[in-house]
Amino acid sequence: IFTDAQYKVFEELKDSNHFSFSGPxxxxxxxxIESFIKHLIKERNASDNIVILVPTRALIxxxxxxxxxxxxxxxxxILSHPTVPLLFRNxxxxxxFVFTPERxxxxxxxxxxxxxxxxxxxxxxxxxxNDSRAPxxxxxxxxxKRKSINLYFSSPNIKNSEIFLQLFGNSTDDTLSxxxxxxxxxxxxxxxVENKAVMFxxxxxxxDIPYDSFNTNEHESLKNAITILxxxxxxxxxxxxxxxxxxxxxxxxxxxxxxxxxxxxCLIDLVRTTMHEEYYLVDCLKKGIAFHFGGLPQRIREKIxxxxxxxxxxxxxxxxxxxxxxxxxxxxxxxxxxxxxxRKFSDVDFWNLAGRAGRLTKDLSGNIICLRLKNxxxxxxxxxxxxxxxxxxxxxxxxxxxxxxxxxFYINIxxxxxxxxxxxxxxxxxxxxxxxxxxxxxxxxx
Length: 446
Hints:
- This protein is α/β, with parallel strands linked by helices.
- The chain has 18 helices and 17 strands.
- Strand 15 and strand 16 form a beta hairpin.
- The radius of gyration is 23 Å and the shape is globular.
- The two termini are about 45 Å apart.
- The model has no long low-confidence stretch (mean pLDDT about 90).
């Protein structure tokens, strides 16, 4: 069953050969795409091959397993490897592929069955300037565009979602940006340094709230906040760094009682078998708590995600891996840092993360709790400035360096190709790699 906004997107998808839409994290974008794929299969008599493009390998199994439950047409095989088994080809099967950009590039570079549609999930990754994977996204989709494959883009909280169509020379009429959220989200700031707690109204005003559980010890302050505000519901605690993620999780779990839960016991056995018998994730899992970051084995992360969705795990401490499209909603999200690594949140970053507070069909409302535990850089240390994105609920238009030519982009690409010095001597390694990668890609497509 669609909401009105979801139905509007679905109807416009049906009338377009390419399309770009955006909506809040709680909007149900994956549900719309799955429904549209079912529509295509029915209306076109199961004649098309389809790709869902995800930003990281970590998302492949999540999306693949969901599709296997939703797409029950026997003619269709759900695959994630860029080589189609000969057995399937001989049977005249059709395919839905779940690919990363690298796998799509590999698939399109070989003699494989033609692709008719590509759905780009988390399309905002195309615009990330400090991510070496953004050029791969661009390259993969340029290859698809050259083969006249229909492109559909889905992204969270992008005000000008037509930018993805502009990047690939498609009409910008086929776009829709949804701003209203299906879940009410309450916004709070608890400052354990200044001993202040406020709630933000819809028009951005601050209302003082009664809260007196501040503590000079950051771990006690966090424990108090989760115990009081997160009682009897599931909570996500965003910590930014791996050290903070593990440290806060261990300290929070330390004095809690162990749980008797066979599902947790199975995951504990898996951790002990595949990682180490005394790995400290075990100490957390015994208490119904987990931490989640990119360095954990993918199999362990996936099990943690399943147990969190099933409510076996009550609290999950995490880094920005949760921004990669992992579908983990919770009643509350505690945000301890306003940065990803050393970089401050962008508007899109913050609302993509904060949007996981509450989820359509699960909650009527969710709580976003920005928590300042200590006076440290990128820990809400400049509240007046840092909280602007929280108070205003505003997401500015996004840009692509391919279109703005910022930082003398095309001159530096040319310098990279000709092995000349870049225009700035103090260029970071990530920027150098970006220029070099785009140089190779644009040379290929020239």
